[in-house]
Amino acid sequence: MALTTRRRVLGTLGAALAGAVVLPASAARAAGSHRGPRPLWRAHAHNDYAHPRPLSDALDHRFGSVEADIFLVGDQLLIGHDASELDPARTLESLYLEPLCARVRAGHGSVYRGWRRPLQLLVDIKTEGSSTYLELDRHLRRYPHLFTRYAHGRVHPGPVTAVVSGDRAARAPMAAQTERRAFYDGRLSDLGGSAPADFISLISDNWTQNFTWTGQGTFPDAERQKLHGITGAARARGQQVRFWATPDTPGPARDALWTELLAAGVDYLNTDDLAGLETFLDSHPSA
């Protein structure tokens, strides 16, 4: 494949997964005239379900990504961080899928009205991965127009892109599908591997297991180069990058680390402090 053709294919795939649908100029102007506030696409609500109003609080703060932990109990997908806190009334459907469907309907096809890029829904599987994913797949298929879809080698963008994380056993049944409504959350060990971005759309890993710097003092040059190398390698394949376990206590250290993540092109900043990350990103509009 010629280099220019390869770049065009990767650019198209990256745009599809990120939802950056390219509109004609006239249509873009028309959509812009009805746009709401600028979404913060790089903001990821870690453990989103722990907030007083799951999903709604993150959307009110204009987040571009939310995370929901799921447990398979019977044929229900219950939301919670630990099995001891599960409530039959708190399901993936009631807290996320139905509200997202209603919001997209009200937003004329978008989570954020006038903005065509999809919201990322990161689903962290806490029970056995294969069986839980198959039930998740059945749930997602109930909403045929809501999710970005992979079908026979092509990605069809939707208002929401579901990405499956957590128990690694989910990978096998996902990889076996020729059509699915979710993508896989890889690890740094997957970076540069054979799986394409239309399967592994996101690379996530634990910050503290890969870097020693926590925002205090000077960022070591070797670690900065490593970080830029990670994001560069992911971008070349049309993949996005996120780190969890980054410092989340408000203060200069967190701001310094977030600044370095932005500078390196990390796609999602991880936080439980919705207002804090909103304020930070609003002060960095180029992000």
UniProtKB/TrEMBL annotation:
GO biological process: lipid metabolic process
Keyword Transferase belongs to the record: no
Segments crossing the lipid bilayer: none
GO molecular function terms noted in the UniProt entry: phosphoric diester hydrolase activity
Alphabetized UniProt keyword annotations: Signal
InterPro entries cross-referenced by the UniProt entry: AIM6_PI-PLC-like_dom, HAT_RTT109-like, PLC-like_Pdiesterase_TIM-brl, TAT_signal
A Pfam family reported for this protein in Swiss-Prot or TrEMBL: GDPD_2
Signal peptide residue numbers: 1-27
Protein name (record): Altered inheritance of mitochondria protein 6
